[in-house]
Specification:
The chain has 433 residues and is an alpha/beta fold. It contains 19 helices and nine strands. The protein is 51% helix and 9% strand.
Length: 433
């Protein structure tokens, strides 16, 4: 048997294994940019500091389109991505087709989890989460008994208005009764609610495939033209997995106080699910970087003791499993993490990136292990309101303070709106030092 890992690694990513390059020049450009990033991660003196423009709708605004146009007219989103790359020639392409899905597909299944431009939010603004209580307190026991069954028969009808037939989805355990279990297992699929739900899924899936071919194909074209994709996989901290789109922020904060033992069991149960999500998504996308946005662990969201009980131990298990699988966790610490630094300094060995929004990066450098790569923290205020000279000065000073090794220059947030000339100033800052 080969000793080579089954999935993507930094080595396969740097070589560009599995990528259909436009030509040899594109392959050379890709490998030069990828080497810069890998050298930075390994403290191997990259030719300069790499820049990653973490963003969601920024390419759309950059090209002069609205978020509504991008979500309903795929050709405009396609043009946005190509314009973004042509204008800025980024070190890393920070984008995936899943970041801006087809609004038509969302409409077909009546997705309740987000308001999107033109359907709940303004056509000119980006989508916004609706953090409702999709799982009630009374549902915890069903979740503990069989998480998959809970998500199929109870969660899906709550979060998708046009998938209510999933409430009638038969339990797989019925099939253990042998031939006597087959008839009752098949019967719900002939009932009108289930038939309507399955048709909606077929229609939404067809639209998702059309979107993937158009937008996903454009992403592949950009990567094949010489631009390494920064992130392939995604997962969440188990606490956020429960708090974001299942219990909701308000409900899970009540659980911290009113039913801590139940909450702890639920968060612990989600650890293997979070690990599997990160590994599978990285393997599917042939990219070792696994993005982990941290939403509810920041200073002020919970006490230090609660962070060390309900958030960090489970997240640490996810990080350790990903590094053991030769993947590179890319943790995005939204908000301020100053009071968490000592706790999260207890990290497993391995290459990883910690990306900060509003935490003193020099303090981060002093506190976290030396093998951790740090990213951030160019603010949206700077990128939105100041002049390019100020952006260049701040970015170059930040590089001077952080050093060339194990640092990635990046906005502190997932960028949407900003002055294009300021974004270019930030991206050019390492080149012009």
């Amino acid at each position: 048997m080969s000793d080579e890992p089954a999935g993507p690694t930094l080595e396969t990513w740097q070589r560009g294994d599995g990528i259909d390059f436009a030509d040899e020049d594109a392959k050379a450009d890709y490998q030069r940019r990828a080497k810069r990033m890998v050298d930075a991660l390994r403290g191997a003196d990259p030719d300069r500091v790499p820049v990653n423009l973490l963003s969601t709708f920024y390419p759309v605004f950059h090209a002069g389109y609205t978020p509504e146009e991008a979500m309903y007219e795929g050709e405009k989103l396609q043009d946005s991505l190509l314009t973004f790359v042509d204008d800025l020639e980024p070190d890393l392409f920070p984008w995936a087709a899943s970041l801006i899905p087809s609004a038509t597909a969302l409409e077909i299944v009546d997705y309740q989890g987000f308001d999107w431009p033109g359907d709940g939010s303004s056509p000119e603004t980006v989508y916004q989460a609706r953090e409702r209580e999709y799982m009630g307190v009374e549902d915890y026991e069903d979740f503990f008994t069989d998480p998959s069954d809970f998500f199929i028969r109870q969660y899906l009808p709550e979060v998708f208005g046009e998938l209510d037939g999933m409430a009638h989805f038969p339990q797989f355990s019925n099939l253990t009764a042998g031939i006597a279990g087959v008839h009752p297992y098949l019967l719900p699929f002939g009932m009108p609610p289930m038939r309507e739900t399955l048709q909606n899924l077929l229609d939404a899936g067809e639209e998702a495939m059309r979107w993937q071919q158009l937008i996903g194909g454009t992403v592949e074209e950009i990567v094949g033209a010489g631009y390494p994709q920064s992130v392939g996989g995604i997962t969440l901290a188990p606490y956020d997995m429960l708090g974001d789109m299942v219990r909701g922020t308000h409900a899970i904060m009540m659980d911290l106080k009113r039913r801590p033992e139940t909450l702890l069991e639920a968060v612990d149960r989600l650890v293997p699910i979070a690990i599997e999500m990160g590994i599978t998504s990285a393997h599917v996308n042939n990219n070792p970087f696994v993005f982990i946005p941290l939403h509810k662990g920041a200073d002020g969201f919970m006490s230090g003791e609660e962070f060390e009980t309900f958030y960090w131990p489970q997240l640490r298990q996810v990080i350790e499993a990903l590094t053991e699988a030769d993947l590179v966790p890319w943790l995005f610490a939204e908000g301020r993490y100053t009071s968490r630094l000592e706790t999260i300094s207890d990290l497993p060995e391995g290459e990883m990136i910690w990306h900060f929004q509003d935490t003193d990066l020099e303090l981060v450098r002093e506190t976290l292990p030396e093998y951790v790569t740090i990213a951030g923290d160019v603010s949206t205020g700077l990128l939105n309101t100041r002049e390019p000279e100020a952006v260049t000065e701040y970015s170059q000073d930040l590089i001077e303070r952080m050093g060339r090794n194990r640092f990635v220059l990046s906005p502190g947030v997932g960028l949407d709106e900003a002055k294009p000339e300021n974004v270019k100033a930030m991206m050019d800052a390492p080149k012009n030092r």
